[in-house]
Amino acid sequence: MSTRRLGAVAVSAALLLMSACGGNDDSAGTAGGDTKVSVTSFGCEIWNTWAIDKGIYAKHGLEVELVRAGGGSAAVAAVLSGAADFGYVNGYTAINAYNTGFPIQMVSGANVNALPPAEPAQGVFVGNDSPIEAPADLIGKKIAVNEINGINQIVTSNWLKANGVEPDSVSFVALPFAEQIPAVLNGRVDAAQLGYSLLGDNNDTVRSLADPFASIEKTYIATYVSANEFVADSDAAKRFHEALTETMQQLEDPANTDESFQLLSECQKVPAETLAAQPQNKLEPAVDMAALEQMAQQMVDLKLMPETPDLESLVADFARS
Asked: What are 12-15's contacts with CB under 8 Å, separation 24+?
């Protein structure tokens, strides 16, 4: 079964679940005049904790409800079914869903990989006492990623290939981020690919072989998509993008760094100093079309798509850099 077909099946299956759970009928407005919108989340995104605490969403006329989603396919299904208005997905998932024919638009970027000279924010983590030292040592091993054929698998495959290891020679295992490091430590998997910011309080129990994101160009690790119909029906998507832009400008101000990690600490239940010691991805609310096109080409190179699609209709005009 092709990856395109796999992606379609994953989203379709999630759509059935979302339909069974019912949709969100509250996006038209609230008694206070704000537009009530639902946003999928993996847990504690630093921009959401800041925007909610500082009233930035409210300033832009949005009453935001965060809805947990297990992955990008579930987030796409949520916006297509109406169970959510904004889906938190990586750029590869958005491109694959769009190429499959699902009527979505990217309405904002969120973050991209930290490229040198910035400190790596991602890693392929193994236990401190693991004999694995290099990409070649991963042949025949199990690597945990959060989603099969998702961004972590695609980027790790690119990294393996760049280091002379065929991606088919390893086994990728889908696990939620929170379960990946425990699985490495108890031997269920041999390695895990995730961001430093997702290590929780495990900074001292694992080591990274390398940052696989450092071997590629700018990559959208997080973006937001909406259904075409939702974007066309109101300016809520534009206001959501503007709120994220203002939020990220404030987060980039060094004067706000300590407070932002304190807020994130309260959400993640991890000490603020531990979070502050973990390298972060780069915030980028505007969408760079050239970067998206490079991501699509990477999917073609890995035979995940037959050819690069025309991405012009994928990204809303107001969200572009």
From this structure: 12/77, 13/77, 14/73, 14/74, 14/76, 14/77, 14/78, 15/77, 15/80, 15/81
Measured torsion, CA atoms of residues 70, 71, 74, 76, in degrees rounded to the nearest 10: 150
Q: What are phi and psi of 315, to 5 degrees?
A: -105, 125
Mean pLDDT (10-residue bins), the chain, 321 residues: 43 43 45 84 91 97 92 90 95 95 97 85 95 98 91 93 95 93 96 89 90 87 96 96 98 95 89 86 95 93 91 97 92
Give the Cα separation of 69 and 42 in Å (integer). Answer: 6
User: CA 199 to CA 45: how far, in whole Å?
Assistant: 14
Taking each continuous run of H as one helix and of E as one strand, the counts in the chain are: 12, 11
5 Cβ contact list (under 8 Å, min separation 6): none
- Is 191 in a helix, a strand, or coil? strand
What is the pLDDT at residue 232? Answer: 96
- Residue 310, classified by CB atoms within 10 Å of its CB into exposed (0-12), middle (13-18) or buried (19+), is exposed
Q: C-alpha 240: how far from its chain's center?
A: 17
Q: At what angle do helices 46-53 and 236-251 cross, to 10 degrees?
A: 100
Which residue type is seen at 164?
A: G
